[in-house]
Structure formats: C-alpha cells, structure tokens
User: What shape does this take?
Amino acid sequence: MKLWGGRFTKEENQLVHRFNESLSFDQRFYAQDIRGSIAHVTMLAAAGIITDAEKDTIVSTLNSIKADLDSGKLEFTPDSEDIHSFVEAELISRTGDTGKKLHTGRSRNDQVALDMRLYTRDVIDELILIETSLLKELYTLMEKNLDTYMPGFTHLQKAQPVTLAHHLGAYFEMFSRDRSRLKDNRERMNYCPLGAGALAGTTYPLDRELTASLLGFYGPTLNSMDSVSDRDYLLELLSDLSITMMHLSRFCEEIIMWNSNEYRFIELDDAYSTGSSIMPQKKNPDIAELIRGKSGRVYGHLVALLTTMKGLPLAYNKDMQEDKEGAFDAMDTVKDCLILFTDMLKTITVNRDNMENSAKNGFTNATDAADWLVKNGVPFRDAHGIIGQLVLLCIEKDCSLDDLPIEEYKKICPVFNEGIYEAIAMKTCVDKRNTVGAPGKAAMEKVLEKYKEMI
Ligand code: ARG
Assistant: This one.
C-alpha cells in the first residue's frame, strides 16, 4: 500500500518500485519500529491528542502484529515501500479508522531516524557484551601464560623476550578501547529524534520528553532539522567497527604466522581450520584469514556512508536510505568475526617450548647482556659494541649467548664473570622488567588485577 497515493495519478513502474523500496532490508527493524509507534501513541494519548481507548486499540494491535511477525504467521508483502508503511497498513487493515491516527504528528523522516537509532543502540549493547566475552577469554589466557616466554619483535625481527601473557595484553588493551568507544558512542547518540516531524517539528502539543523517556533516551534531540538528517552515530559506529576489524586483522595475521610450520608457536583446533582439495598434508587457517579479509568490507561501508552524506543539503534526503545495507552488513560481519575469533582463541594449543626456544635463538637477551656490562662499570656505547662482537662470534659458532664459554667472553672484555649467565637467562630478562606495563611477572600481576575489574 502507498501512504502517499493522493497526489499521484500514474501507477509506479516496477523498476522504480524496486529501486525505491527499502522493505527488503529495513524489515529487520520491525521490532524497533513497533516499539517506537507504541511510545508515540502512548504520548499522543497522554497529551490528549487521541483518546485512551484509541491508544489501547492501537497498542494491542501493534503488539499482535509484532507477535505474528515474530512467529512468521504474518509475512512481509513486497508491495509496501518500507517497514513503516507495512506496519501502518497492517494496523489499518486490522483496526480500520482508529489505526489511521497512529501517524498523527509524525513523519517517516523522524520515524526512520528513531528506528535506526533504536536498532543501532540495541546492536551496540550486544557488541559490548560480545567484546566483554573476548576480553574475558584474553584474561584467562593471560593468567595461564605469565611464564610462557616468547620473542617480542620489532620490524618482524626478534628483539627482546616477552611472555605470551604480555603479548596478549596488548590486544586486551586494544579491544578494551574498542569497547569504550562503543560506550562513548552510545552516550552521545542516546537522544530521541521522534517529534521532529518531517523537518520542522509539528503544531501538535507533543510531549517529546515523555516519548524520549518511554524509549530509554536521556531526552529529546534539540534541533528538528538535525534530528532527521543526522547519521553521525552510524558513522561513529562504522569507525569503531573498522578499528575493531583492524585489531582483529592484526591478531589474525599473527595467529596465521604462529600457526605456520616455520613458527609452530600455536596450533589451531581442527574446527577452525580446513584442508586442501589437492594437498593432503594441509591444515589451513581459513577462519583467521577470512576475519583478516573481512576488514576490507567494513572499511568500505564507512567510506561509502561518509561519501553518501557529504553533499547532502539539510534536511532529510532519500540518499540517506543508503545508510542501512552497509551498516547492517558491517554490524553482522563484526559480530560474527568477534564471536568466531573468541571461540578460535579458546581452542588454540600453545607450544610453550617452541616459543621459548625461539626467544633463546634470536639473541633477544643481547640488550640485557649490554645492561649487565653497564652495571659493571662499562659505558653503554662501549657495552653495545662489545655485545655486538660477541653476537657475531656466536653466529660463527652457531650458538647462543647463553652457551658461549666464559673464556670467550673474557677474551673480548675482561670485565665479564660467571654472573653474566644469570643476568641473561630468559627468566631474568623478563622478570627484571617490572616497570608498569612491562612483561615482568610482578608487573603483569598488578595489571591483571586491573583487567579483572574491567571484565
Ligand atoms: N525508507 C526511508 C529511509 O530509509 C524512510 C524515510 C522515507 N521518507 C521519505 N520522506 N521518503 O530513509
């Protein structure tokens, strides 16, 4: 059914209908649309614009429409232009003239602004819970791996030893920032646009404070033109989601490397790997690769919406209907990625020995060896040179600094004594690093206490 047939003389052509309609994708927020309509008529009755009896009829019919849509008894008919027209037409067909009063003092412009906000707010609440599960999983893994030594890298070259707990802690920080970005976004967007009308408010004595509080908003939005044309909260969400995907993608990249034959730091569970159709030996990290790959489409949706919005004059323009499909796809994609990623993490096997051996083999304790010389009176620049020579010698002899005999040390610098071995042992190298945020066990335990409060 058309809501605007009165002014028109020609039937709409099929392609125009298909091009113009949004029901095929905005049907996903029917529950929010109905929630908004119930608040609207409740307010209309409280303000004396419709009677209580009319309100009761409309509310109970809207509730039964919702129940019928939930159960599948009522199906979306493709002749409606959007979810708003569909619900209103159904209401009128069930109640007759009473239903025709629902849209009093309302436009689809403020209606869609409300529905999209309600839907987005619900998704944000869900995403906050999903991110919290990921943080919990990271916390559990960190607690278990405070003594799992591994090389820390810069330039993808082994640099200094860290622990797996410390490495995972970096991601804990990233994902907790992502979660707080969602919370910020929710705070900023939590104002109700309903009552803005088409763009200039209405002449009915609407109680916008009441509608806002019925829907759990802090209050009404304060400019009716902005209310119907603001999509900042969606752009913020798409930026938040893009950053989350970037974090997931970096983590997946590391997981893919760690799971490779060259590293063998971890092993992915069979459930999150797939085989090759030709090479029988293969166990590919497809899920991690797909999550890494899907970052592209989420960034794409952010850029698409920024571009759609950038030339729009105030107030509502139909271009804004283009906000939905991309945003929905981004929300769905990120939800799936976060859930799958968390499950994948839960089931990895950590090869502690391989990690520790790798840290030992790459001279990751060279800085600590230089620091030992400094503590024994050698200026840092000289110490740096001396250890450099020792590393060269070890490369020639194919051994680590830990295995080089003390005579060889002494040949290059007489300051050395047996104490050097203790100073460059993996455990010492890590555990001596106890400034806030460093990988030492004591420092990490303090940080974990804070993380515990955050989850
Ligand atoms: N489907 C439209 C959208 O998503 C709803 C608002 C339509 N308003 C209008 N004046 N045509 O933006």
Summary: The chain has three domains: 5-104, 109-145+160-199+229-352, 357-454. The mean pLDDT is 95. Strands lie at 149-154, 157-163, 191-192, 219-220, 266-267, 349-350. The chain is about 60% helix and 5% strand.
